Amino acid sequence: MLGYYPGCTVRAQKEDGFEQESLAILAALGIEAKELKEWECCGAVYPLAQDEYVGLLASVRALVQTEEEQQEGLLTLCSACYHVLKRVNYRMKNDEEAQKRVGNYLETEYQGQTKVLHLMEVLRDYVGMKKLKEMVTTPLEGEKIASYYGCLFLRPQKEINLVDGENPQLMEEIVRTLGAETVTYPYSTDCCGSYHTCQEEGVSRQMSLKLVESAKRAGATQMITACPLCKYNLEKCQEKIEETDRLPINYMTVPIVEAMGGMEALERKGEAYAHSAENSSQSTA
């Protein structure tokens, strides 16, 4: 079983369905994820000051709690949360001074041994594309999907190490498994403008619009991402465009849910798996 770290943004935007869809997908695939008993905001941005340790505490608490609850790893959905948790974990594994300072403050020892996982990583390493393909009941024939990674999944490569930072293909692999066509365009790893949207909306809009227009020129029928802020920026930049000309921006879960028969079908599969696992547990007790 995996520990589950929802994060503030995903939990605050429940109407988007990202969390519900993600957990339903995992349940249907036989992956159990249990929310941590207590968690707090990771800080949203990784603290870059090398002599500042307070910014590490929230993430370390979550990582330690994952161990205490005897979970196999810590799952998160938001790429910002994933970025922060992964980098904090890397530092705690490799920085003895951080281990000492944080350990003194939290009155515990932690050396970066918890695995930090993103939904895509779980699909790749715990489920596998073969099993995912077996669950597809409605192949997405005719869909041309542009995958948008953004910054946080990829950089810095040494610390994140999820995919090839120069030529990531994990989202494309998932898209092909669903029966859709992948769209190659030049800016899938460029920044969307990130938090500039708060104070320099024009800057963010220009950066995001470049991404969307590039994907449209390449023939995309939709873009997918795993970052709530990226999704917001990619949608926001199209506000002045006629609605019929806007490129749909979806979480990566949307095409997965569609290809697997919809939420009701997923929930039935999840319930069936849970029932089967319960019966198996009782028979071996």
Automatic annotation (TrEMBL):
InterPro entries: Cys_rich_dom, HdrB/HdrD_reductase. The keyword Oxidoreductase applies. Residues 3-86, 146-234 form the Cysteine-rich domain. Keywords: Oxidoreductase. It holds the Pfam family CCG. The keyword Oxidoreductase applies. One of its GO terms (molecular function) is oxidoreductase activity. This is Heterodisulfide reductase subunit B.
